Structure of E2F transcription factor-like E2FF:
Amino acid sequence: MSLSIVAQDVDSLALQTYSRKEKSLGVLVSNFLSLYNRDDVDLIGLDDAAGKLGVERRRIYDVVNILESVGVVARKGKNQYSWKGFGEIPRSLDELKEEGMREKFGISTTNNSDKVSNDGEGEESFSLTPDDQENSSSSKMDQKKEKSLWLLSQNFVKMFLCSDDDLITLDTAAKVLLSDSPDPVHMRTKVRRLYDIANVFSSMNIIEKTHIPETRKPAYRWLGYKSIIENGSTLFNSDEPKKRVFGTEITNIRAKRNKTDSSSNRKQIGDKKHDQESKPAANKYVFGPFSPTGTPKNSNNNVGNGNGRLQEIEALASTYRPQYCNPELTGLLGHFTEAWTRWYAEAERK
DNA sequence: AATTCCCGCCAAAGT
DNA sequence: ACTTTGGCGGGAATT
């Protein structure tokens, strides 16, 4: 009884439709956050994370690198990071802002001067000092770091922090972050990375995807830092009403992305292998954003504020699919409010 | 057709 | 030598 499936679509007949959404970095991050955002968590093992989250190692690197760019985690050593918490974000942002300002990162002010007449406007124009940073001490084994996701992520944040205009399109970001190299190829790659970063920050509510007033061009808006600190029971505490936006979907079905065409058409039907299908890692529980949160440390008062909503549900435990290679994930989802999972903002349409 | 962006190959760093 | 990191871009899913 009470099988109130959300049924976001009319066609439930679409049997096992590979959903790209559930595989997104955004969802992964949400899960990652819910998994480690606990006061009793300190160290994070990459293998552990990959195992519990049911994803390949590679993905964890992405998540961790981006989270590290805002101080949520910090590399501790080989195969292991340490959880810092959301409380670190404000600090990190201040630092980034200062750095950005110093480097004369962004200096836009209701500009309007593009060589391209085509473009309407509404963008901004950063300056990003071309290869600043006094030479001398450096550049040796840094060339590698210059293209790191970590750096790109920080620069992306700096753009928001240092700009007066908080609406930025990935194209612009990429352009700025490249400051040169008219090569459209590099742009492509850069934008790909930015999508990844933007998705992560979006799921953390640090930014939000919207559209530019004028053109329908999609862009990202900077959300208050305050919204991320709270982001739980106490919604907006300051001003500015914001809504939660999460692109989390619960539609987990099997199938892969229909990859590989090649030739071999292994149709192992009545296979022997006990165990249906054998896909290296699958997943998992998918719930919206993270949990209550608060400062990394002090937060021993669990059941605080009783009135209101804020109900915790730890049911739903155990994955829907028994993962053969999935260790235990028993205590991970001890909490998390269900409410989150239902907030969307799909209003803005043509 | 254009945009979004997952997947995983494979090359650099690290041990 | 092997292992850990993580650029990078093909091309499938979405819009």
User: Anything to note?
Assistant: Chain A has a mean pLDDT of 64. Chain A has one domain: 21-113+146-255+279-297+309-342.
